[in-house]
Amino acid sequence: MMCSVQSFWRVNLLFCLGLFLHCGEARVHTEVQAGPLYRVVGSLLSITCNVSGFASASTRKEFEFCINKPSNPTFEINIISTSDQSFSFAMYGSRVRTGEITLKHVSSNSVVFEIQSLEKHDEGEYECSVINTEQIYNGIYSAKTTVKVIDNSLSVSSPSSTSLSYNEDDALTLTCQASTNTIQHTHLSLAWYLHKDGEDNAHPIISLDRDFTLNPGQGFEGRYQAGLISLDKMGETTYRLKMAQLQLSDQGRIYCQAQEWIQDPDRSWYVITQKDAEETTLNVNAREVVPDMSSLVVRVSAQPTTLQEGQELTLSCSVDTHNLEERFFSVAWLRGSDELARIGPTGILSVGPKYSVRAKEGELRAARTGDRDYSLILQPVRTDDQGEYICRAWPQDRGQDGAFTQGAAKDSISKLVNISATESGLSVEMQNTPSVNEGDRLKLTCKVLGVKGQLSVTWQHRSASTTTPMFTTLISLSQEGVTAKAKEFMSRKVKAMRPSTDTFTLELDEVTPSDSGVYQCTVSEWNANSKTNSQSQTTTVTVAPVDSFVKVNLISRKTRVPVGENVELMCRVRGPRIPLTLTWSLQRDVSTLDNILTLYFDGAISWSGDQHRYQLKVENKKNEVIHYLLINGASHREAGSYQCSVSVFLENVHKKLPASNQVAVSVQNPGKNLSIVKKEEELNVSSSQNFTVPCHIAKQSSIKSVFQVTWFWQKWGETEPSPIFSVYRNCTLQYSVEKGGCLRYDHPLPNQFSLTVLKPGPEDSGVYFCAVEEWLPSLSHGWWKIAEEMSGNWTVNVYAEGPAKAVFEPECMSGTWIGILVAVVIGTLLVILLLVLKICRSKGKKKGESLWAEQPLNTKASAEE
Questions:
Q1: What gap in Å lies between CA 117 and CA 551, rounded to an integer?
Q2: Which of 552-561, 610-619, 622-631, 669-678 has the lowest mean pLDDT?
Q3: Highest mean pLDDT: which of 206-210, 409-413, 633-637?
Q4: Dist. CA 809–CA 801, nearest whole Å
Q5: Residues of the chain with CATH 2.60.40.10
Q6: Residue pLDDT, tens place only, 565-599
Q7: Cα–Cα distance for residue pair 91/634, rounded to 1 Å
Q8: For 675-841, CATH number?
């Protein structure tokens, strides 16, 4: 087996032998797709492996696939072989037997390895190996590629109703929302499909590919070229389909499909996931047939025909004739002999002189709503608007110079509209609302005065991005308390309520910048199921986009650390509390960006690969949330540029925000950075004078390091110094029997140590110095010594005063023992404290190890643990 250890040595031995016999000229070459390959959980993984250079090129080669996972990169796991059914390890055996994992030949020298549905733990480094059947080894017989398995964050939805009904030649508009939260650079493509009844496969209507190129589907090319079918991207996540003239063949189920693409290192694009929105059933009804070629049919309808002052009147006009799409018309609305408005052959609106002021104030609105359909709205109506209304149409012939020639007019049958006066004192007041942030809840309040009958309310919106004065209905609340949403808002969290008799409220959750604009509250008064009066008020609302008030910043107090130290990164997300997903990533080199973890808006956490050194903490504050990423005992693998990125989850779609700044973390091998003050001194003291040998540390490598200090004494006439006193890093003290009774140890500051010789005699003369070791704790290495340095020499001459004194006289001993006893007590307390810390932080201590004290240093003071 190529992937086994035995095979590894066999292959390499024979490979070296082949190189020797063939003078190093490599012939066999094995290759797979260059990595890293980013794939989504649940999607297909396909890796092609090719080999060339064998002498027997036409003979079928046998291949094997193995994997090394991030959690244990040195352990190789067998997956599948083309020649050995027992090759697989247990964790992959069942998936191989069921056919979920396959390895198939596409030629004698090429295979395709596939995993039908990727799992998170399939991430790792894959190796393809070819089994050599020839006598010599000469070349490269295996190749590797890295696969990263990421979460599926693609979201697709369509707010349309599940069933729609239109007439032939009507215009259809549908919207689809698609977004992704993948941190890697990906592109989205989107297509609309029509699945006709009785057919197995859906037909693409039109698509927008990953490079923003529009492509009509088969059978829709002509209508696309004529401008009758279009697909527009509205903002970051919304895609709009327009079909200007529906045909009977358009009947069926329509849905949108989004695909997420990623570019592999070989520059090819790959679909990592795709999702479909819910289907919308479309019914298309046939139009009424016009009697002959020259006939022109004009119709008018009024809704309602009986209304009261202040209400809204809609006058609809339709024109029908043969070859309608090839002809031009002018259409006008008239009340008696007064022309309200006219729409010319090119769609330009002109208003009659009696209605120009009302049009400027928004009380009259008219538009062409389809090839044959026109609409005029009067609101609020007045009593003098009562009368008979007709629609008048003129055929318009267009000459070669572009000028129009007007033909004979054709009138519709008149429609009588009755408008009665009302004595109601109904009035409406809309409370002003300041700007709101994207993702927040918009709440509007309408106060009503002069209430006499039952009331209903209709909430409408006019987008800030449109120039048309027309309002779109959001939601209404009837006089019986029944709520009705507009079909465009069926998927939105919108509520119309009446908390008190004279108050109506509108609540719209998770607003977006497209919700900016003018909002209108129209309150209607009813009597005996008849609307008697309507009053409206408006207010302007601005929705600030999320990236204008949510800011992401990454900081760290320390970015250059030695191996084993901790690093704390802080990702500060400033702004209001909205659902958001945060991803930590690490870039180790220019081409590779690895996810560390993703904290989702619902609290779930997804870790990527082997991340046992990382810990996560979240701190909520009033106007910001701080996400902490703690690197415990940093190694070289944790070095690189860190970044946090945020996406918010609004209206069931993800919206990416600009990523934070990058913070580079550098992990270095600890160096000699202890230093000791190397002062040289020569002292002449009498036997009645104490003298002190200081050991002061000028600089240390890390604030977490501790010191071990040993003082040495070299007597006159001796060739080697001897240790006389040691203080270990756990505060354990050790002294020589020869001088233990006349020594006093002091440690006034963290970087200052000193040893005083009490009551010296001439026999205490000699050279004194200290040696300092710096030790650093590490989760991965334990305690390790990172530096060692000697101080300068103190040459001491002690001359006698009177009779010579004994070295261990009681006066010296008693004082010294008191000092040593105090030091031992303090040291014991510190050791107990260290013991508690060690018990809390250390697990699995080997049996027989002492927790109370470190072993003493040898005379060279250089042992490492």
A1: 37
A2: 669-678
A3: 206-210
A4: 16
A5: 5-150, 155-285, 297-420, 427-544, 563-668, 675-841
A6: 889 999 999 988 778 899 999 998 777 788 888 99
A7: 31
A8: 2.60.40.10
Residue 54 backbone dihedrals phi, psi, to 5 degrees = -70, 145
* pLDDT bucket at 829, cuts 50 / 70 / 90: low
Tell me the two tokens of residue 792: 């300068």
Q: Which residues contact 86 (CB under 8 A, 6 or more apart)?
A: none
Sequence-ordered list of residues with C-beta below 8 angstroms from that of 807, at least 6 positions apart, any chain: 739, 741, 742, 761, 763, 764
Q: Which fold has domain 5-150?
A: Immunoglobulin-like (2.60.40)
CA dihedral sign, ordered 29, 35, 41, 42: negative
Q: How do residues 490-527 score in pLDDT, each as one tens digit? A: 878 899 999 988 899 999 988 888 889 999 999 988 76
In this predicted structure, what is the pLDDT of residue 711?
Answer: 93
How far is Cα 502 from Cα 425, in angstroms, rounded to an integer?
13
Residue spans of beta strands (DSSP E) within 277-401: 280-285, 297-303, 306-308, 313-320, 328-335, 338-343, 349-351, 364-368, 373-378, 387-398
3-class SS shares of the chain: helix, strand, coil, % to 5: 10, 50, 40
264-273: string of b/e by CB count within 10 Å (b at 16+)? Answer: beeeeebebb
From residue 496, how far is each of 379, 477, 481, 514, 612 by CA, in Å? Answer: 22, 6, 10, 20, 50
Which residues are CB-neighbours of 411 under 8 A, at least 6 positions away?
298, 390, 391, 392
Residue type, 635: S
pLDDT value at 7 more than 50: no
For residues 476 and 478, give the distance between their C-alpha atoms in angstroms, rounded to a whole number.
6
Pick 563-668's CATH classification: 3.30.590.10, 3.40.50.300, 3.30.420.40, 2.60.40.10. 2.60.40.10
Q: Which of 582, 573, 524 is nearest to 549 (CA)?
A: 573
What does the pLDDT read at residue 822?
43
For the 155-285 domain, the top CATH level (class) is: mainly beta
**Spatial contact of 861 and 788, defined as CB atoms under 8 Å apart:** yes
Give me 620's structure tokens.
Answer: 């909520």
What is the pLDDT, as a whole number, of residue 114? 97
Is the preceding omega at residue 36 within 30 degrees of 0, hence cis? yes
The answer to whether 428 and 451 have CB atoms below 8 angstroms apart is: no
Predicted structure pTM score: 0.57
- E strand residue ranges, 804-858: none
Report the distance separating Cα 21 and Cα 322, nearest Å. 89
DSSP at 844: S
CA distances from 26 to 3, 7, 108, 195 (A): 21, 20, 21, 56
Question: Before 304, cis peptide (omega within 30)?
Answer: yes
Q: Is 463 helix (H, G, I), strand (E, B) or coil?
A: strand
Taking domain 427-544, whether its CATH number is 3.20.20.140 is answered by no
3-state secondary structure 579-630: CEEEEEEEECCCCCEEEEEEECCCCCEEECCCCCCEEEEEEECCCEEEEEEE
Q: What is the third-level CATH fold of 297-420?
A: Immunoglobulin-like (2.60.40)
